[in-house]
Every structure is written in C-alpha cells, then in structure tokens.
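Response to reviewer comment R2.3. The reviewers asked that we include at least one raw input/output pair. We reproduce the pair for Elongation factor P here without editing.
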Amino acid sequence: MANTSDIRNGLCIRYNHDIFKIVEFLHVKPGKGPAFVRTKLKSVTTGKVIDNTFSAGHKIDDVRVETHKYQFLYQDGEFYHFMHVEDYTQIRLLESALDMPQLLKEGEVLTVIINTEDNMPLSTEMPASVVLEVTHTEPGVKGNTATNATKPATVETGAEVNVPLFINEGDKIRIETEKGTYKERIKE
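Raw output as returned:
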C-alpha cells in the first residue's frame, strides 16, 4: 500500500476494479482546506482516460510492474505482435493498449509494462520521438513562409502529421510521439 505522496507519472494503481496508469498529476495545497492530488488516470485495459482527485494521505493500491524492451514485428487486424529483445519470446497486444499505434513502424523498439503478479502486459511506452519518411504531401507555395504555415503530410505508417511548408516527399522527419506532432527534419 502506498499513499498520495508516492504518486508519480507512470505509476500503475488498482482503482475502481481496474488497473490505471497515472498520466498526469498535480499536488495542490490551497490556502484554505486540506491538500489534495489531482490526477489523470488511463485505464490499461480499455485505454479510457479519467480525471480523479485524491485527498492528501489517501491510501492507494499500487501494482508492482516490470518494464521490458520489445520490438514491433507486425500488425494483424486489431492485434500488434512484439518480440522480447533479449529472449525472443513473442507477445501480442490489442491496439487499445498502445499509446500512438499510428506512429509505430516495423522494427521499432518500445517499452512494455508487465504486471508481475500474473505476467500480463499492461501497456506500452513509445520512445520520445520516431523518425519516419514522408510518403505524400502537397508542394509548398513560394512566398507563403512568413506565417509559420503548415500543411498535412502522410508518413510511411499512414499517419497524417502537420509539417512546415519546406518538407517534401521523401524527407525524413522526427515526430514527437506524445502529441503526434512534427519536431524537425532529419538531414542525411
């Protein structure tokens, strides 16, 4: 058993007959009244995100988890297949267990969080950014660069990302996986 002072991003807790991962939290100490912790919880089984407030000192039931590196192999309908990078065992996860499946490219290595009680995978953590090639985008219009303008671009995984006008087909770009946004162009 833990309490609210142990809350941190990524902590998995048992709450309302489900296991949730803490996505965001904020300790609040108002001038009047007791302190509390405002949290954003993501269900590892359904992917649903809820907001919850715990009073200070509230007991929480934390779930002991381990993290392992897995390599993405392929997608088969709603299932994504992964291989452990050390012992080569394979697992498959539902699309709802993944944070940004549209940015996942074959061969990408990500972290899988596993419940130590029953060895079941709970959720995944993508790398901070991924490098993908632009497969389709409209050419930029000359002279339209004064206003930080963007245009839609389709990357090799099929995801659509807004990019600056100077990005062309065939360019490799770095995408922030947390928000799914363009970060920079990769020079080769």
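The mean pLDDT is 85. The CA atoms of residues 20 and 43 lie 4 Å apart. Further pairs are available on request from the corresponding author.
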